Amino acid sequence: xxxxxxxxxxxxxxxxxxxxxxxxxxxxxxxxxxxxxxxxxxxxxxxxxxxxxxxxxxxxxxxxxxxxxxxxxxxxxxxxxxxxxxxxxxxxxxxxxxxxxxxxxxxxxxxxxxxxxxxxxxxxxxxxxxxxxxxxxxxxxxxxxxxxxxxxxx
Length: 154
Fold this sequence. Notes:
Radius of gyration: 17 Å
Order of helices and strands: HHHHHHHHH
Number of strands: 0
Shape: globular
Helix content: over 70%
């Protein structure tokens, strides 16, 4: 229980909810697209970029994006969800943006990678500060972000 409380502890302001909503909703939508538009965004795309076992990996990645995106939105298990999505976005950058860099140079890659890099920075931020006061993590960790009674009176 102490490990879970430490993972969920946050002293970040309530405004962090905006970062959670942004990152969580983007990842959730990307996961849904892998199922609704499998040829373009799911297994079909995974085949095109060379991901092994695309019929298995695309739905797996889609579920991870939907579940972890939803967890970010509600602010539950924010840090573990952010870690899973950091791995996800790093693989996406490695498999789709690094080849652009090699073939077309920095500026072409930069143009196509803006969203990926922005999402990575949001996830690193959430990993560092936690879910904020307006989150389920804050409630589980003990009230207003898991801070001690002494901290709450200051």
